[in-house]
Write a structure and sequence with these properties.
Blueprint: H1 2-21, H2 29-48, H3 52-82, H4 92-123, H5 126-151
Helix pairs in contact: 1-2, 2-5, 3-4
């Protein structure tokens, strides 16, 4: 069963990376997010090494967590988009509101993490919860590196093994 999962994940990851590496042949903008999410699921699945029961219990909770965080971030992006970028031209009260809004956003994000951390601990052994957080950070670093390499014309780095 695990071999089948690993083969499927490897095939899917190679397919996504090869499609993204094609000059001008990358996915349409709306699909990029879905592809990144699929890559993240494959990455986390590999790193966490979940049993079938753990996977069944964990993924619905993790998906709710991701949805909640994404909704918060989207609302925050919209609010920031409407704000001016030049603080020097803003009134002090407006700058204060902007900074307070940023602090509130970070607190809300932390509150969501705390809420779901408690649920993750109920679904997974603590070592796998710790691996989850580490794997999420590793995925972000890898993704940012790929984006940076691509912008510099280096293309995507070879897949990690």
């Amino acid at each position: 069963m695990k071999k089948v999962q690993l083969i499927a994940i490897a095939f899917f990851s190679v397919w996504i990376l090869s499609a993204a590496a094609q000059p001008g042949g990358g996915p349409p903008p709306g699909e990029k997010k879905e592809q990144i999410e699929a890559m993240k699921v494959a990455f986390l699945t590999r790193k966490l090494d979940l049993t079938p029961q753990e996977a069944q219990d964990f993924w619905p909770v993790y998906n709710q967590f991701q949805d909640e965080v994404e909704n918060l971030r989207e609302a925050h992006r919209k609010a920031r988009k409407s704000a001016k970028d030049d603080f020097d031209e803003m009134a002090d009260k407006d700058v204060e509101k902007l900074v307070d809004s940023e602090i509130a956003f970070r607190q809300n994000e932390l509150d969501i993490l705390k809420k779901y951390h408690a649920q993750f601990k109920q679904k997974l052994p603590m070592k796998k919860v710790a691996r989850l957080y580490r794997a999420e950070e590793e995925f972000k670093r890898d993704l940012l590196k790929r984006i940076q390499d691509r912008r510099e014309g280096g293309g995507p780095p070879p897949p990690r093994r």
